[in-house]
Amino acid sequence: MGPQMRVIYILCLRQIKRYMRARARIIGSLGQPLLFLLAMGFGFGPIFRKAGGGNYIQFLAPGIVIMGILFTAVFSGIEIIWDRQFGFLKETLVAPVSRLNIALGRTLGGAVVAFIQGLVVLVFCLIAGFRIEVAALLPVALLAMFISAVLFSAIGMALGSVLEDMQAFPLIMNFLVMPLFFLSGALFPMKGLPEPLMFAMRADPVTYGVDSLRGTLGRASLFGVGTDLIVLGAIATMLVSIGAYLFSRIEL
Amino acid sequence: MSTPDRETSAGLVIEVRELVKKFGDFSAVNGVSFEVSGGTIFGFLGPNGAGKTTIIKMLTTVLRPTSGSIRVNGYDPLSEQRQVRSSFGIVFQDPSLDSEMTALENLELHGVLYGIPSGARKQRTETLLKLVELWDRRKEFVKNFSGGMKRRLEIARALLHEPRIVFLDEPTIGLDPQTRNHIWQYIKTLNAEQQITVFFTTHYMDEADRVADEIAIIDHGVIVSRGTPGAIKAGTQSGSLEDAFIALTGQTIRVEEASSIDRMRTLGKAWGRR
After folding, report:
1. What ipTM was assigned to the predicted interfaces of this complex?
2. CATH architecture observed for domain B40-61+77-269
Protein backbone atom coordinates (compact mmCIF):
# COMPACT_ATOMS: atom_id res chain seq x y z
CA MET A 1 0.00 0.00 0.00
CA GLY A 2 1.41 3.40 -1.00
CA PRO A 3 1.54 6.22 1.55
CA GLN A 4 -1.42 8.02 -0.06
CA MET A 5 -3.54 4.86 0.03
CA ARG A 6 -2.58 4.39 3.66
CA VAL A 7 -3.91 7.88 4.45
CA ILE A 8 -7.27 7.05 2.88
CA TYR A 9 -7.31 3.70 4.65
CA ILE A 10 -6.51 5.02 8.14
CA LEU A 11 -9.12 7.81 7.96
CA CYS A 12 -11.70 5.32 6.74
CA LEU A 13 -10.72 2.93 9.55
CA ARG A 14 -11.06 5.73 12.09
CA GLN A 15 -14.70 6.25 11.19
CA ILE A 16 -15.47 2.54 11.32
CA LYS A 17 -13.86 2.28 14.76
CA ARG A 18 -15.77 5.27 16.06
CA TYR A 19 -19.02 3.81 14.75
CA MET A 20 -18.41 0.39 16.26
CA ARG A 21 -17.61 1.98 19.61
CA ALA A 22 -20.71 4.16 19.73
CA ARG A 23 -23.33 1.50 20.47
CA ALA A 24 -25.93 4.06 21.48
CA ARG A 25 -25.58 5.62 18.05
CA ILE A 26 -26.05 2.29 16.23
CA ILE A 27 -29.21 1.55 18.18
CA GLY A 28 -30.42 5.15 17.90
CA SER A 29 -30.11 5.26 14.13
CA LEU A 30 -31.84 1.87 13.83
CA GLY A 31 -34.89 3.25 15.61
CA GLN A 32 -36.22 5.38 12.79
CA PRO A 33 -36.12 2.82 9.95
CA LEU A 34 -37.53 0.13 12.22
CA LEU A 35 -40.36 2.41 13.29
CA PHE A 36 -41.21 3.09 9.65
CA LEU A 37 -40.97 -0.60 8.79
CA LEU A 38 -43.27 -1.74 11.57
CA ALA A 39 -45.75 1.16 11.76
CA MET A 40 -46.13 1.69 8.01
CA GLY A 41 -45.51 -1.90 7.00
CA PHE A 42 -48.14 -3.43 9.24
CA GLY A 43 -50.40 -0.36 9.41
CA PHE A 44 -50.83 0.15 5.68
CA GLY A 45 -50.44 -3.53 4.77
CA PRO A 46 -54.17 -4.34 4.54
CA ILE A 47 -55.05 -1.22 2.49
CA PHE A 48 -52.12 -1.82 0.11
CA ARG A 49 -53.29 -5.38 -0.44
CA LYS A 50 -56.90 -4.31 -1.05
CA ALA A 51 -55.73 -1.74 -3.59
CA GLY A 52 -54.08 -4.57 -5.50
CA GLY A 53 -50.47 -3.68 -4.61
CA GLY A 54 -49.66 -7.07 -3.10
CA ASN A 55 -47.54 -7.56 0.02
CA TYR A 56 -46.63 -4.11 1.43
CA ILE A 57 -43.63 -5.29 3.49
CA GLN A 58 -42.24 -6.76 0.29
CA PHE A 59 -42.68 -3.35 -1.37
CA LEU A 60 -41.50 -1.26 1.58
CA ALA A 61 -38.38 -3.12 2.79
CA PRO A 62 -35.96 -1.96 0.03
CA GLY A 63 -36.99 1.64 0.78
CA ILE A 64 -36.38 1.15 4.50
CA VAL A 65 -32.90 -0.32 3.86
CA ILE A 66 -32.06 2.77 1.76
CA MET A 67 -33.48 4.96 4.52
CA GLY A 68 -31.08 3.42 7.05
CA ILE A 69 -28.18 4.03 4.66
CA LEU A 70 -29.27 7.58 3.81
CA PHE A 71 -29.57 8.85 7.37
CA THR A 72 -26.39 7.20 8.64
CA ALA A 73 -24.33 8.35 5.65
CA VAL A 74 -25.46 11.97 5.73
CA PHE A 75 -24.85 12.06 9.46
CA SER A 76 -21.34 10.59 9.07
CA GLY A 77 -20.50 13.32 6.58
CA ILE A 78 -21.82 16.00 8.88
CA GLU A 79 -19.48 14.67 11.58
CA ILE A 80 -16.93 17.06 10.04
CA ILE A 81 -18.75 19.76 11.98
CA TRP A 82 -18.10 17.89 15.24
CA ASP A 83 -14.49 17.33 14.26
CA ARG A 84 -14.20 21.03 13.61
CA GLN A 85 -15.75 21.81 16.97
CA PHE A 86 -13.68 19.35 18.96
CA GLY A 87 -10.54 20.29 17.09
CA PHE A 88 -9.53 17.04 15.41
CA LEU A 89 -10.12 18.54 11.96
CA LYS A 90 -7.09 20.83 12.46
CA GLU A 91 -4.83 17.82 12.94
CA THR A 92 -5.75 16.54 9.48
CA LEU A 93 -5.66 19.96 7.81
CA VAL A 94 -2.04 20.75 8.77
CA ALA A 95 -0.77 17.29 7.76
CA PRO A 96 1.37 17.07 4.61
CA VAL A 97 -1.23 15.14 2.65
CA SER A 98 -3.54 16.28 -0.10
CA ARG A 99 -6.97 17.38 1.05
CA LEU A 100 -8.43 15.24 -1.73
CA ASN A 101 -7.17 12.08 -0.03
CA ILE A 102 -8.47 13.22 3.35
CA ALA A 103 -11.86 13.89 1.78
CA LEU A 104 -11.85 10.51 0.02
CA GLY A 105 -10.94 8.69 3.23
CA ARG A 106 -13.72 10.40 5.12
CA THR A 107 -16.33 9.83 2.41
CA LEU A 108 -15.39 6.18 2.12
CA GLY A 109 -15.43 5.74 5.91
CA GLY A 110 -18.91 7.25 6.13
CA ALA A 111 -20.04 5.02 3.28
CA VAL A 112 -18.73 1.81 4.89
CA VAL A 113 -20.44 2.69 8.16
CA ALA A 114 -23.73 3.43 6.37
CA PHE A 115 -23.42 0.22 4.36
CA ILE A 116 -23.06 -1.82 7.56
CA GLN A 117 -26.09 -0.02 8.98
CA GLY A 118 -28.01 -0.91 5.79
CA LEU A 119 -27.09 -4.59 6.26
CA VAL A 120 -28.40 -4.51 9.83
CA VAL A 121 -31.67 -2.94 8.65
CA LEU A 122 -31.94 -5.60 5.94
CA VAL A 123 -31.64 -8.33 8.56
CA PHE A 124 -34.46 -6.73 10.56
CA CYS A 125 -36.58 -6.55 7.41
CA LEU A 126 -36.05 -10.29 6.91
CA ILE A 127 -37.17 -10.88 10.48
CA ALA A 128 -40.27 -8.75 9.85
CA GLY A 129 -41.27 -11.01 6.97
CA PHE A 130 -39.42 -9.66 3.92
CA ARG A 131 -38.31 -12.34 1.44
CA ILE A 132 -35.41 -12.03 -1.00
CA GLU A 133 -36.83 -13.36 -4.26
CA VAL A 134 -33.70 -14.03 -6.33
CA ALA A 135 -30.80 -14.99 -4.08
CA ALA A 136 -28.38 -14.86 -7.03
CA LEU A 137 -28.92 -11.10 -7.33
CA LEU A 138 -27.89 -10.42 -3.73
CA PRO A 139 -24.31 -9.37 -4.67
CA VAL A 140 -25.77 -6.80 -7.10
CA ALA A 141 -28.06 -5.54 -4.32
CA LEU A 142 -25.06 -5.14 -2.01
CA LEU A 143 -23.22 -3.23 -4.74
CA ALA A 144 -26.22 -0.92 -5.17
CA MET A 145 -26.34 -0.38 -1.40
CA PHE A 146 -22.66 0.53 -1.32
CA ILE A 147 -22.83 2.97 -4.25
CA SER A 148 -25.87 4.61 -2.62
CA ALA A 149 -23.90 4.86 0.65
CA VAL A 150 -21.00 6.61 -1.14
CA LEU A 151 -23.44 9.02 -2.76
CA PHE A 152 -25.20 9.96 0.49
CA SER A 153 -21.92 10.18 2.41
CA ALA A 154 -20.65 12.64 -0.22
CA ILE A 155 -23.77 14.79 0.30
CA GLY A 156 -22.92 14.86 4.02
CA MET A 157 -19.28 15.76 3.29
CA ALA A 158 -20.29 18.64 1.06
CA LEU A 159 -22.70 19.99 3.69
CA GLY A 160 -20.26 19.46 6.56
CA SER A 161 -17.52 21.36 4.69
CA VAL A 162 -19.72 24.40 4.15
CA LEU A 163 -21.54 24.60 7.47
CA GLU A 164 -19.70 26.11 10.42
CA ASP A 165 -21.87 24.86 13.23
CA MET A 166 -24.60 22.44 14.17
CA GLN A 167 -27.38 25.05 14.16
CA ALA A 168 -28.29 24.19 10.58
CA PHE A 169 -28.58 20.50 11.33
CA PRO A 170 -32.38 20.37 11.91
CA LEU A 171 -32.77 22.43 8.74
CA ILE A 172 -30.84 19.84 6.75
CA MET A 173 -32.82 16.97 8.24
CA ASN A 174 -36.23 18.55 7.61
CA PHE A 175 -35.65 20.32 4.30
CA LEU A 176 -33.17 18.04 2.59
CA VAL A 177 -32.89 14.52 3.98
CA MET A 178 -36.57 13.93 4.79
CA PRO A 179 -37.79 15.28 1.40
CA LEU A 180 -35.15 13.18 -0.39
CA PHE A 181 -36.52 10.17 1.44
CA PHE A 182 -40.24 10.88 0.93
CA LEU A 183 -39.74 11.67 -2.77
CA SER A 184 -37.82 8.47 -3.38
CA GLY A 185 -40.84 6.24 -3.81
CA ALA A 186 -39.77 4.28 -0.76
CA LEU A 187 -43.26 4.41 0.74
CA PHE A 188 -45.62 4.50 -2.27
CA PRO A 189 -45.47 3.32 -5.89
CA MET A 190 -44.63 5.81 -8.65
CA LYS A 191 -47.87 5.19 -10.48
CA GLY A 192 -50.70 7.57 -11.42
CA LEU A 193 -49.17 10.50 -9.55
CA PRO A 194 -49.39 14.19 -10.57
CA GLU A 195 -46.73 15.06 -13.14
CA PRO A 196 -44.80 17.63 -10.96
CA LEU A 197 -44.47 15.01 -8.22
CA MET A 198 -43.27 12.40 -10.72
CA PHE A 199 -40.72 14.88 -11.99
CA ALA A 200 -39.41 15.62 -8.51
CA MET A 201 -39.19 11.90 -7.80
CA ARG A 202 -37.21 11.25 -10.97
CA ALA A 203 -34.80 14.05 -10.01
CA ASP A 204 -34.20 12.56 -6.55
CA PRO A 205 -31.06 10.37 -6.51
CA VAL A 206 -32.47 8.34 -3.61
CA THR A 207 -35.20 7.09 -5.99
CA TYR A 208 -32.59 5.15 -7.99
CA GLY A 209 -31.18 3.59 -4.83
CA VAL A 210 -34.63 2.38 -3.80
CA ASP A 211 -35.44 1.21 -7.33
CA SER A 212 -32.18 -0.72 -7.68
CA LEU A 213 -32.92 -2.61 -4.46
CA ARG A 214 -36.49 -3.33 -5.57
CA GLY A 215 -35.06 -4.77 -8.78
CA THR A 216 -32.45 -6.94 -7.08
CA LEU A 217 -34.04 -7.98 -3.79
CA GLY A 218 -37.53 -8.17 -5.30
CA ARG A 219 -38.60 -8.14 -8.93
CA ALA A 220 -40.15 -4.74 -9.33
CA SER A 221 -37.64 -2.31 -10.79
CA LEU A 222 -39.20 0.63 -12.61
CA PHE A 223 -36.17 1.94 -14.51
CA GLY A 224 -34.15 -1.30 -14.74
CA VAL A 225 -31.28 -2.15 -12.39
CA GLY A 226 -28.67 -1.30 -15.03
CA THR A 227 -30.02 2.23 -15.47
CA ASP A 228 -30.28 2.64 -11.70
CA LEU A 229 -26.64 1.67 -11.15
CA ILE A 230 -25.40 3.95 -13.94
CA VAL A 231 -27.38 6.93 -12.58
CA LEU A 232 -26.22 6.23 -9.00
CA GLY A 233 -22.60 5.83 -10.10
CA ALA A 234 -22.64 9.05 -12.11
CA ILE A 235 -24.26 11.14 -9.38
CA ALA A 236 -21.97 9.60 -6.74
CA THR A 237 -18.87 10.50 -8.79
CA MET A 238 -20.14 14.04 -9.22
CA LEU A 239 -21.01 14.51 -5.55
CA VAL A 240 -17.73 13.01 -4.31
CA SER A 241 -15.89 15.54 -6.50
CA ILE A 242 -18.02 18.42 -5.18
CA GLY A 243 -17.58 17.24 -1.58
CA ALA A 244 -13.82 16.90 -1.99
CA TYR A 245 -13.59 20.33 -3.60
CA LEU A 246 -15.57 22.02 -0.82
CA PHE A 247 -13.51 20.20 1.79
CA SER A 248 -10.26 21.37 0.19
CA ARG A 249 -11.38 24.99 0.59
CA ILE A 250 -11.88 24.84 4.37
CA GLU A 251 -9.90 27.51 6.24
CA LEU A 252 -9.54 27.60 10.00
CA MET B 1 9.16 11.77 5.42
CA SER B 2 11.09 14.81 6.50
CA THR B 3 11.70 17.52 3.97
CA PRO B 4 15.26 18.71 3.44
CA ASP B 5 15.97 22.13 4.91
CA ARG B 6 16.39 24.85 2.37
CA GLU B 7 19.32 27.23 2.59
CA THR B 8 18.12 30.28 4.45
CA SER B 9 19.80 33.57 5.08
CA ALA B 10 21.76 33.42 8.36
CA GLY B 11 20.10 30.23 9.64
CA LEU B 12 16.61 31.70 9.92
CA VAL B 13 13.80 29.14 10.14
CA ILE B 14 10.95 31.66 10.10
CA GLU B 15 10.98 34.89 8.11
CA VAL B 16 7.93 37.14 8.00
CA ARG B 17 7.84 40.36 5.93
CA GLU B 18 5.08 42.99 6.03
CA LEU B 19 2.41 40.43 6.83
CA VAL B 20 -1.19 41.69 6.66
CA LYS B 21 -4.46 39.85 7.30
CA LYS B 22 -7.78 41.62 6.93
CA PHE B 23 -11.18 40.19 7.83
CA GLY B 24 -13.52 42.55 6.00
CA ASP B 25 -12.60 46.04 7.19
CA PHE B 26 -10.84 44.79 10.30
CA SER B 27 -7.04 44.37 10.16
CA ALA B 28 -6.18 41.50 12.50
CA VAL B 29 -2.52 41.65 11.45
CA ASN B 30 -1.24 44.98 10.25
CA GLY B 31 2.22 44.83 8.63
CA VAL B 32 4.19 42.47 10.86
CA SER B 33 7.84 41.56 10.18
CA PHE B 34 10.08 39.32 12.26
CA GLU B 35 12.44 36.41 11.99
CA VAL B 36 13.32 33.44 14.19
CA SER B 37 16.78 31.85 14.19
CA GLY B 38 17.16 28.08 14.06
CA GLY B 39 17.42 26.31 17.42
CA THR B 40 16.03 29.14 19.52
CA ILE B 41 13.00 29.35 21.79
CA PHE B 42 10.89 32.25 20.60
CA GLY B 43 8.06 33.66 22.74
CA PHE B 44 5.22 35.47 21.00
CA LEU B 45 3.24 37.52 23.52
CA GLY B 46 0.24 39.81 23.32
CA PRO B 47 -3.18 40.50 24.82
CA ASN B 48 -6.24 38.54 23.68
CA GLY B 49 -7.18 39.40 20.12
CA ALA B 50 -3.77 40.92 19.35
CA GLY B 51 -3.29 38.67 16.32
CA LYS B 52 -1.09 35.86 17.68
CA THR B 53 -3.25 32.94 16.66
CA THR B 54 -4.00 34.53 13.28
CA ILE B 55 -0.26 34.74 12.58
CA ILE B 56 0.28 31.12 13.66
CA LYS B 57 -2.54 30.05 11.34
CA MET B 58 -0.84 31.81 8.42
CA LEU B 59 2.56 30.35 9.29
CA THR B 60 1.03 26.87 9.41
CA THR B 61 -0.74 27.06 6.00
CA VAL B 62 -4.34 27.03 7.22
CA LEU B 63 -5.12 30.70 6.58
CA ARG B 64 -4.23 32.82 3.54
CA PRO B 65 -2.54 36.17 4.23
CA THR B 66 -4.02 39.29 2.61
CA SER B 67 -0.50 40.42 1.71
CA GLY B 68 3.13 40.05 2.77
CA SER B 69 5.56 37.15 2.57
CA ILE B 70 6.32 34.21 4.81
CA ARG B 71 9.11 31.62 4.78
CA VAL B 72 8.96 28.61 7.09
CA ASN B 73 12.07 26.42 6.98
CA GLY B 74 12.81 28.25 3.71
CA TYR B 75 9.49 27.34 2.08
CA ASP B 76 6.45 29.42 1.17
CA PRO B 77 3.27 28.32 3.03
CA LEU B 78 1.15 29.36 0.03
CA SER B 79 2.94 27.64 -2.83
CA GLU B 80 4.92 24.94 -1.00
CA GLN B 81 2.33 23.75 1.49
CA ARG B 82 3.52 20.19 1.73
CA GLN B 83 7.15 21.08 2.47
CA VAL B 84 6.06 23.61 5.09
CA ARG B 85 3.64 21.16 6.67
CA SER B 86 6.22 18.44 7.09
CA SER B 87 8.69 20.96 8.61
CA PHE B 88 6.62 21.79 11.67
CA GLY B 89 4.71 20.18 14.51
CA ILE B 90 1.96 22.07 16.29
CA VAL B 91 0.06 22.11 19.55
CA PHE B 92 -3.04 24.19 18.93
CA GLN B 93 -4.62 26.51 21.45
CA ASP B 94 -7.72 24.29 21.54
CA PRO B 95 -7.56 20.52 21.91
CA SER B 96 -7.19 18.64 18.63
CA LEU B 97 -7.10 14.98 19.63
CA ASP B 98 -9.72 12.42 18.69
CA SER B 99 -11.12 11.68 22.13
CA GLU B 100 -12.95 8.55 20.96
CA MET B 101 -9.63 6.89 20.17
CA THR B 102 -6.77 5.71 22.38
CA ALA B 103 -3.50 7.59 22.85
CA LEU B 104 -1.76 5.02 20.68
CA GLU B 105 -4.37 5.26 17.91
CA ASN B 106 -4.02 9.05 17.84
CA LEU B 107 -0.28 8.73 17.35
CA GLU B 108 -0.67 5.97 14.77
CA LEU B 109 -2.99 8.15 12.71
CA HIS B 110 -0.53 11.04 12.92
CA GLY B 111 2.32 8.77 11.84
CA VAL B 112 0.40 7.60 8.79
CA LEU B 113 -0.62 11.15 7.84
CA TYR B 114 3.04 12.19 7.97
CA GLY B 115 4.23 9.12 6.07
CA ILE B 116 6.49 7.74 8.82
CA PRO B 117 7.46 4.10 8.14
CA SER B 118 5.79 1.83 10.69
CA GLY B 119 9.03 0.58 12.33
CA ALA B 120 10.26 4.11 13.03
CA ARG B 121 6.79 5.17 14.08
CA LYS B 122 6.51 2.47 16.73
CA GLN B 123 9.95 3.18 18.11
CA ARG B 124 9.44 6.97 18.27
CA THR B 125 5.97 6.54 19.74
CA GLU B 126 7.48 4.57 22.60
CA THR B 127 10.29 7.08 23.19
CA LEU B 128 7.95 10.09 23.14
CA LEU B 129 5.19 8.53 25.25
CA LYS B 130 7.82 7.61 27.83
CA LEU B 131 9.17 11.16 27.72
CA VAL B 132 5.74 12.68 28.45
CA GLU B 133 5.00 9.89 30.97
CA LEU B 134 1.99 8.42 29.19
CA TRP B 135 3.42 5.08 28.07
CA ASP B 136 1.52 3.18 30.78
CA ARG B 137 -1.78 4.71 29.66
CA ARG B 138 -1.24 4.34 25.92
CA LYS B 139 -4.21 2.02 25.42
CA GLU B 140 -6.71 4.24 27.20
CA PHE B 141 -9.24 6.43 25.47
CA VAL B 142 -8.26 10.07 25.30
CA LYS B 143 -11.70 11.10 26.61
CA ASN B 144 -10.67 9.67 29.98
CA PHE B 145 -7.51 11.82 30.12
CA SER B 146 -7.15 14.97 32.24
CA GLY B 147 -6.37 18.30 30.60
CA GLY B 148 -2.68 17.98 31.41
CA MET B 149 -2.45 14.45 30.00
CA LYS B 150 -4.13 15.56 26.77
CA ARG B 151 -1.64 18.40 26.42
CA ARG B 152 1.31 16.06 27.00
CA LEU B 153 -0.06 13.67 24.39
CA GLU B 154 -0.45 16.55 21.92
CA ILE B 155 3.17 17.52 22.50
CA ALA B 156 4.31 13.95 21.88
CA ARG B 157 2.22 13.88 18.72
CA ALA B 158 3.61 17.20 17.46
CA LEU B 159 7.15 15.77 17.75
CA LEU B 160 6.48 12.33 16.23
CA HIS B 161 7.56 13.25 12.70
CA GLU B 162 10.76 14.95 13.96
CA PRO B 163 9.89 18.49 12.86
CA ARG B 164 12.43 21.32 12.61
CA ILE B 165 10.00 23.75 14.25
CA VAL B 166 7.32 23.25 16.84
CA PHE B 167 4.50 25.76 17.30
CA LEU B 168 2.91 25.83 20.76
CA ASP B 169 -0.15 28.08 20.99
CA GLU B 170 -0.71 28.59 24.74
CA PRO B 171 0.49 25.07 25.57
CA THR B 172 0.13 25.46 29.34
CA ILE B 173 -3.26 27.17 29.54
CA GLY B 174 -5.45 25.84 32.33
CA LEU B 175 -2.79 23.50 33.75
CA ASP B 176 -1.49 23.28 37.30
CA PRO B 177 2.05 24.57 38.08
CA GLN B 178 3.46 21.03 38.33
CA THR B 179 2.26 20.07 34.86
CA ARG B 180 3.36 23.40 33.43
CA ASN B 181 6.85 22.89 34.80
CA HIS B 182 7.01 19.40 33.36
CA ILE B 183 5.87 20.54 29.95
CA TRP B 184 8.49 23.28 29.76
CA GLN B 185 11.10 20.80 30.87
CA TYR B 186 10.31 18.43 27.97
CA ILE B 187 10.37 21.34 25.58
CA LYS B 188 13.72 22.67 26.81
CA THR B 189 15.22 19.19 26.70
CA LEU B 190 14.12 18.73 23.09
CA ASN B 191 15.33 22.18 22.14
CA ALA B 192 18.76 21.52 23.69
CA GLU B 193 19.21 17.94 22.46
CA GLN B 194 17.73 18.14 18.98
CA GLN B 195 17.99 21.87 18.17
CA ILE B 196 14.26 22.04 17.50
CA THR B 197 13.12 25.63 17.09
CA VAL B 198 10.27 26.42 19.46
CA PHE B 199 7.71 29.13 18.66
CA PHE B 200 5.24 29.61 21.51
CA THR B 201 2.56 31.95 22.80
CA THR B 202 1.49 32.26 26.43
CA HIS B 203 -0.22 34.60 28.86
CA TYR B 204 2.05 33.48 31.72
CA MET B 205 4.77 36.12 31.63
CA ASP B 206 6.95 34.35 34.20
CA GLU B 207 7.07 31.31 31.88
CA ALA B 208 8.08 33.41 28.92
CA ASP B 209 10.74 35.14 31.03
CA ARG B 210 12.24 31.83 32.16
CA VAL B 211 12.06 29.89 28.91
CA ALA B 212 12.38 32.23 25.93
CA ASP B 213 15.67 33.18 24.27
CA GLU B 214 13.86 35.93 22.46
CA ILE B 215 10.45 37.59 22.70
CA ALA B 216 8.18 39.62 20.45
CA ILE B 217 5.22 41.51 21.90
CA ILE B 218 2.32 42.14 19.55
CA ASP B 219 -0.67 44.41 20.07
CA HIS B 220 -3.46 45.52 17.71
CA GLY B 221 -1.82 43.57 14.90
CA VAL B 222 1.62 45.22 15.12
CA ILE B 223 4.82 44.27 16.95
CA VAL B 224 5.44 46.78 19.74
CA SER B 225 8.65 45.36 21.17
CA ARG B 226 11.31 42.74 20.40
CA GLY B 227 14.39 41.39 22.09
CA THR B 228 15.62 39.15 24.89
CA PRO B 229 13.46 39.13 28.04
CA GLY B 230 16.24 41.09 29.77
CA ALA B 231 16.38 43.74 27.06
CA ILE B 232 12.59 44.20 27.07
CA LYS B 233 12.57 44.65 30.84
CA ALA B 234 15.49 47.08 30.68
CA GLY B 235 13.87 49.03 27.82
CA THR B 236 10.74 49.70 29.88
CA GLN B 237 12.62 49.96 33.21
CA SER B 238 10.41 47.19 34.61
CA GLY B 239 11.30 44.68 37.30
CA SER B 240 9.32 41.87 35.72
CA LEU B 241 8.24 40.90 32.23
CA GLU B 242 4.63 41.29 33.35
CA ASP B 243 5.23 44.95 34.23
CA ALA B 244 7.02 45.46 30.93
CA PHE B 245 4.08 43.84 29.11
CA ILE B 246 1.56 46.14 30.82
CA ALA B 247 3.77 49.17 30.15
CA LEU B 248 3.87 48.28 26.44
CA THR B 249 0.28 47.20 25.86
CA GLY B 250 -1.67 49.31 28.38
CA GLN B 251 -4.21 48.54 31.08
CA THR B 252 -7.35 48.18 28.98
CA ILE B 253 -9.09 44.81 28.86
CA ARG B 254 -9.55 43.62 25.27
CA VAL B 255 -12.95 42.83 23.87
CA GLU B 256 -13.04 39.68 21.84
CA GLU B 257 -16.14 38.56 20.06
CA ALA B 258 -17.14 34.94 20.49
CA SER B 259 -16.55 33.11 17.24
CA SER B 260 -19.09 30.75 15.75
CA ILE B 261 -16.91 27.92 17.03
CA ASP B 262 -17.30 29.14 20.62
CA ARG B 263 -21.04 29.43 20.23
CA MET B 264 -21.19 25.96 18.78
CA ARG B 265 -19.13 24.57 21.62
CA THR B 266 -21.77 25.83 24.05
CA LEU B 267 -24.43 24.21 21.92
CA GLY B 268 -22.46 20.97 21.80
CA LYS B 269 -22.33 20.91 25.59
CA ALA B 270 -26.06 21.53 25.74
CA TRP B 271 -26.59 18.54 23.47
CA GLY B 272 -24.47 16.49 25.81
CA ARG B 273 -22.08 15.03 23.28
CA ARG B 274 -18.69 13.92 24.64
Report:
1. 0.87
2. 3-Layer(aba) Sandwich (3.40)
